[in-house]
Design a protein that fits this description.
There is one protein chain. This protein has 398 residues and is α+β, with helices and mostly antiparallel strands. Helices cover 22% and strands 27% of the residues. The chain starts with 8 loop residues before the first strand and ends with a helix. The protein contains 9 helices and 25 strands.
Length: 398
């Protein structure tokens, strides 16, 4: 079967077709250019009929317009920057450190960019945690960039600073480089909460030594924090393993028709009510972010109460999310900071044992700073656009 290759994209026409500001579309395309997914190319345009008549190479002196049936000198044509979708890179995936570099543009001749590549996401199951670790003696823009490349791709990263004690200044400095921290975490007032599990701690919270089911944080708040940062101050000798599950992987593995039905069903305005510590929030389990990624407000414990019409679909998701093969399980070192996408990853913790209890600092980051939001994508991405459109319609009650 012959390959049908997409043509070049003309900025003004494409922007008019999808009803978006041309400057906004150009910014989006420039991000894809940085990823090696799209490349800008200068083409010649006929000044009479506005048709593209060929690529403006250094050695080309004449162009022929089929519509006008006329040949034109290079000096007579107009020029325009068009965007071409590149083919996928040869060889193994790019390393984290150079995937934004210029050396990632060697191309195959048989593949086009996939929706996952365009969305800059790699859904995972049973991920090895070692590639997620960023070891550094300092914390600056370059280090945060290394962390966020992992968060964007996998939804999670680990900051391991050498010769640095676990103090509040690390999380505070991280927030200054990423985005504003939430001033309130459930009923706790403050940007950093110290969590020490106790035998009589509140059930379904980090304050208990009992195991915690898979969940995202902030489900009782109207605005769910985009990022979570856990800084481990002291680790229990036995138990207290951190568990993460990528909602993107679970959803991508479901048959496309069944997935569409499940996600859209759980996107209704009254899909669930979340109640904890006297706080209540009712709303959809799946919604769209401003960047059109999918936000999962999902948990599998007593905090969530389902609309009767959503219960069957929720139970099906619960069954799938608890498959052992989807779990990333590891015990962080003291001083480690785990940064992860709270719109995409569910986290849990198994039971804490022993006399020495686990202790960690928790910070919710409301969202990335506005100037960073186009640079780093968060949430579940790479699903068909039809599903995203249906989520939006159902979210709005239409």
């Amino acid at each position: 079967m012959s390959l049908v290759w997409p043509g070049e994209l003309r900025l003004e026409r494409a922007a008019d077709h999808v009803r978006i500001d041309p400057a906004a579309l150009k910014r989006l395309l420039d991000l894809y250019c940085d990823e090696g997914v799209v490349t800008p190319v200068i083409f010649a345009v006929c000044p009479s009929c506005d048709s593209v008549v060929g690529k403006m190479t250094n050695f080309r002196t004449n162009f022929f317009c089929d519509l006008c049936d006329v040949e034109m000198a290079r000096e007579a044509v107009d020029s325009e920057v068009l965007y071409s979708i590149l083919k996928t890179p040869i060889g193994p995936p790019d390393s984290f450190e150079d995937r934004h570099g210029k050396g990632n543009k060697r191309m195959l001749q048989t593949e086009i960019a996939t929706p996952l590549q365009l969305a800059r996401i790699e859904p995972w199951a049973g991920l090895d945690h070692q590639p997620l670790i960023v070891e550094t003696p300092n914390l600056g823009d370059l280090d945060v960039g290394r962390l966020m490349r992992r968060v964007e791709r996998y939804g999670i990263s680990v900051l391991r600073m050498t010769a640095q004690s676990a103090d509040d200044h690390v999380l505070t400095s991280l927030a200054k480089l990423l985005g504003p921290p939430c001033e309130e975490q459930n009923k706790y007032r403050g940007t950093i909460k110290r969590i020490r599990p106790e035998p009589d701690g509140l059930r379904n919270s980090g304050d208990t030594v009992a195991d915690l089911g898979l969940h995202v944080d902030g489900t009782q708040h109207s605005i769910q924090p985009a990022l979570l940062a856990f800084q481990y101050v002291a680790e229990a000798k036995v138990g207290a393993n951190s568990i993460f599950v990528d909602a993107a992987r679970v959803l991508h593995d479901i048959d496309s028709r069944k997935r569409h039905q499940l996600v859209v069903s759980l996107s209704r305005q009254d899909a669930a009510t979340f109640s904890k510590r006297g706080m209540d929030y009712s709303g959809p389990i799946f919604s769209l972010s401003a960047a059109a990624s999918i936000i999962a407000r999902l948990r599998f414990d007593e905090v969530i109460k389902l609309h009767p019409d959503c219960l069957e679909d929720y139970q099906e998701l619960k069954r799938r999310f608890n498959f052992a093969e989807y779990q990333l399980v590891f015990k962080p070192r003291e001083g480690d900071v785990i940064l992860f996408d709270n719109w995409r990853l569910l986290h849990a913790r198994d039971e804490v044992f022993g006399l020495r209890q686990r202790e960690h600092n928790r910070m919710w980051i409301a969202n990335l700073f506005a100037n960073l939001q186009p640079q780093w994508l968060l949430g579940i991405r790479g699903l068909p656009i039809e599903t995203s459109a249906a989520i939006k319609v159902v979210n709005e009650g239409r």
